[in-house]
Structure to design on (164 residues):
């Protein structure tokens, strides 16, 4: 094993190709459910102790590498209950910002899987591109790095933590 591979997953070994495939399929399914606006089904892919976090990033000089923490401003800093509330809001029919519904396309790539010290938990890095089209002419393309913790719960992968 190369020295760089050892620094990625020290003493934990390498994930199996089967595990990598299962995780890739999990992420692709998650993206498809979000694009299809099947949010209730998407919610079943999360653990009840989920932390879903998208911190507001600030451009910093190289000599100030301070990373955001959960006390800083965030677009999302959500628990399972918070995410369920967001979904319930879109189901009311009175969420004017989602009528007509936003169309989206998620692309997930550069998926990298690491074993962790916790059995049945895996650290997953990925890149995403999200295209959103709202109303007639409002379009956004968003890009992001993700760091996830996926957990095997009774033989099924679930998202336990996400930092975007």
């Amino acid at each position: 094993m190369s020295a760089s591979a050892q620094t990625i997953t020290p003493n934990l070994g390498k994930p199996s190709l089967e595990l990598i495939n299962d995780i890739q399929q999990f992420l692709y399914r998650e993206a498809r459910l979000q694009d299809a606006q099947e949010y209730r089904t998407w919610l079943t892919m999360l653990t009840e102790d989920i932390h879903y976090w998208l911190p507001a990033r600030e451009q910093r000089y190289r000599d100030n590498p301070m990373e955001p923490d959960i006390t800083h401003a965030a677009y999302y800093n959500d628990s399972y209950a918070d995410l369920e509330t967001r979904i319930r809001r879109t189901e009311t029919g009175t969420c004017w910002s989602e009528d007509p519904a936003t169309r989206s396309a998620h692309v997930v790539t550069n998926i990298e899987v690491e074993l962790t010290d916790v059995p049945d938990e895996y650290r997953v890095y990925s890149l995403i591109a999200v295209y959103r089209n709202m109303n007639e002419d409002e379009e956004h393309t968003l890009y992001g790095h993700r760091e996830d913790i996926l957990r095997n719960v009774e033989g099924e992968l679930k998202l336990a933590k996400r930092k975007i």
User: Anything to note?
Assistant: The two ends are 30 Å apart (CA to CA).
